[in-house]
Amino acid sequence: MAVIFKGVEVVNSLKEKLLQEVEELRSEGVFPSLAIVRLGAKPDDVSYEKGAIKRCEGLNIKCSTFEYPEDFPHQDLLNEIKRLNSDPSIHGILIFRPLPSQINENELKYVIDPGKDVDCFSPVNVAKVFEGDETGFPPCTPQAVIEMLDHYGISVKGKRVTVIGRSLVVGRPLAMMLLQRHATITICHTRTVDLENVCRQSEILIAAAGKAKMVKASFLSPGQVVIDVGINVDENGNLCGDVDFDEAEKVVSAISPVPGGVGTVTTSVLAAHVIKAAKLQNKKA
Ligand code: NAD
Asked: Per the domain annotation, does 19 fall within a domain?
């Protein structure tokens, strides 16, 4: 039977360190604060926001939601982001994406202050991930995968690591972060030939495809560590990952479940990024 990598254990071990960092900032008169910007009320956004607020408040980080109608004009949103950029009491800004079609994300991403961009929307932060420059803010989900591997003592150095998915929010930055840690990376996607075989050859397999239970026993081999990033709904309406958990846990040596895996850690990473932003802004002040 596989070891189960539980998100809550990672969250608990991060909590102590983050609480101490917030305490240090508060003693210097800095009160870390996150602005969450949302257009409309998509259930996924609202549910993530609730989790983020709960996590941040548990760490004494202030959270304010800036909610606008779904048809909020592009120029007005630019102005709001500029206002948050220049507000010294706000250290981090999270904008829910994808945004409605009247918003030009390609313009907006150049407007958000890279120093406040805690979920890697700005091209400056994307570039920093690819350069291995740790002064930036990588996207929270790939960073949550790294935190999970670190917590469970899984070194990727020199290992064959396969990532399924090449999106700019998960697969691609994650591959770069693993490369920075000296993994030998294979990135798979919808055009990959013989995906099962490629996956089977890897020592660590990370699934971020967004396809319910697509990774079956035939993709897996004994001794593998499997991290499941996918968040999907199965045929019975239950939350599930990209990996068929029941099949996988009989084969591999360790696996993160869905729910209760990577997703749980994401809001702790978000909180850690707000603290990092507050520290950097405090140093500059
Ligand atoms: P996306 O749709 O933008 O990208 C999916 C990627 O997977 C694409 O690059 C595609 O080529 C690849 N892919 C899709 N089907 C495939 C297949 N059958 N074989 C091989 N490759 C395939 O999705 P995303 O935003 O990168 O998210 C991926 C998954 O991670 C989704 O389930 C999403 O819900 C989840 N997610 C989880 C968190 C979290 O906090 N845990 C955060 C963001 C996204």
From this structure: no
